[in-house]
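Troubleshooting log. The previous structure file for this entry was overwritten by mistake, so regenerating from the original sequence record. Sequence copied from the archived sheet and checked twice against the printout by T.R.
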Amino acid sequence: MPDLSGKVAIVTGAGRGIGRTHALALAAAGSRIVVNDLGGTLAGEGADLSPAQQVVEEIAAAGGEAVADGENVADFAGAERLVQHALDAFGRLDILVNNAGILRDRMLVNMTEDEWDAVIAVHLKGHFAPTRHAAAHWRERSKAGEEVRARVINTSSPSGVFGNVGQANYGAAKAGIAGFTIIAAQELARYGVTVNCLAPNARTRMTEETFEMSAPPEGFDPLDPANISPVVVALCADEAQAITGQCFHVWGGAVNVLQGWSAGELFETGGRWDADEFLVALRDRYPDGETPGGMIAGMQAAGGQSLRAQ
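Regenerated output below.
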């Protein structure tokens, strides 16, 4: 296991599911942890610090150090307090794992404004706000002459990178997170910060709301949330300093480094296209039409195979 001794990590949405396993894995590698979780319902309603506190107790029982935090990451000032909490508790911050999220699934024609706004806020703004405040801290350290080796690990989703019916709000937010990761990686490299993201497959209270995901009776469980966390620990190691701006699709033991929005099909003419001519070219190239494959097809294609070979 990479040695993360002396490092301090914030993990958001760490009271349950994938976030919890990230916090435990980072602590086992030697990092001190701020376990952030609002403790709300799956829809993001209410607050309860006890899930975060329970994870803190698990870390302490294993010999680690952690503190609980109940800030709402979608609140800009709350995200700033979260970063300050790490600095006050442990004197530094090295790792930010953005994982908090909610679900309000609905078909597009039935989705309410509140259902859209709430999901976009928790996922997309909930990634931006903590990253913004953590990045400001790392910039100050870098400008002061310190060699910074900081990490941001974001959480996208197969719904965001492949698309999934009934999750226009969630998928749009998760796609935005993948785009945010690439831009943040480009902007923060100068300060010694790497930014990567995960598109994980795991059995959590969020995914079980949408899919049938029962565990196998015996043997390896590809949907155990703990399968995701070794990727996080590896990316947080000093030796991963040169790896940034990547999105890792994880299914059990299969990890694909996704290549989004490739150049794809090229339609070219000597000047400006005429609409009629372009329509003819489209129909010639796609005589049976062309539609998105969807999330299941995308995940099947990524399961243990190189996407580049498809």
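The beta strands are 8-12, 32-36, 66-69, 95-97, 150-155, 193-200, 247-251, 254-257. Archived copy saved in two places this time.
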